[in-house]
Write a structure and sequence with these properties.
single chain; alpha/beta; Rossmann fold; 2 domains; six-stranded mixed sheet; four-stranded antiparallel sheet; 11 helices; about 30% helix; about 25% strand; globular; binds adenosine-5'-triphosphate; membrane; translocase; ATP binding
Amino acid sequence: MAAILTVRDLRKRYPKVVAVDGVSFEVEEGICFSLLGPNGAGKSTTVEMLEGILPPSAGEIRFRGRPLDATYRERIGIQFQNTALQDFLTVRENLRFFRALYRHGADIDELIEVCRLREFLDRDTRKLSGGQRQRLLLAIALVNDPELLFLDEPTTGLDPQARRNFWELVRSIKARGKTIVLTTHYMEEAYLLSDDIAIMDHGRIIARGSPQQLLSEHFDDSVLELPVSAVAGKSLALPLLQRGEWVEIITADVGAAVRSLLAADVPLDRLRIRPRTLEDLFLQLTGSELRT
Ligand SMILES: Nc1ncnc2c1ncn2[C@@H]1O[C@H](COP(=O)(O)OP(=O)(O)OP(=O)(O)O)[C@@H](O)[C@H]1O
């Protein structure tokens, strides 16, 4: 598959901080590529350079093998966290307004179907729920029928159901051949949607791969979880990691760990065994909990 974006040694320096410190990667056409990282890692700065909004201090970005030019903005779509929707206009009127900014673009009726806007088409945009608003912002990002779509923390603030609905939408857009660049603070979202992930910290990429590759390259162990109360007062040879009301035991030998828990008389009725997740990897690589 050909690269739609090629990024070489991209840098952004501000007077007091190097926000992006030499990142290189390719985004293959038709995939969902995600940038993850703790606050201040340089994700937004990187994405704004990819969007052509912010000039790099050094390095290069190519779209389909060519430097970004005046046509680039017509060929990409950006879902901003806070696009200025036209107040006092309905959803339908907003769509028409943004569609009119482009000579060529998507069919409005098709967008209404794809983004499932039909049931609130005539509603004033100030009266939309969080999920409805995000669907409209997504439709607006798609009005010019872009080849490449940027989604910047698109589900922040949505309830779990609205978030799941949005994921379905993103999948259906990808199935229509769009390439997606996603930034998110939700590891589950990154895991479920991404084909390729770059984890950034301090302006650099510190890990890269598909979700499965990242997990299998970094981990060969599992996590046993028990309530704190189950291990309280027990003398255990296993290292315990406390996380809220639960303790975690990380082990490559689940059988041996369970045997030593039994030997120490630890009640196992609430024992949970889980594989490693992107959240674990993120914590291991960056030392930071994710902002939620
Ligand atoms: N316009 C600016 N002027 C000066 N410093 C900036 C500017 N924009 C970003 N920075 C700094 O660059 C670094 C990277 O910021 P950036 O917003 O790209 O990180 P991020 O990974 O997107 O973080 P978040 O998850 O909080 O959005 C930070 O130290 C930030 O303070």
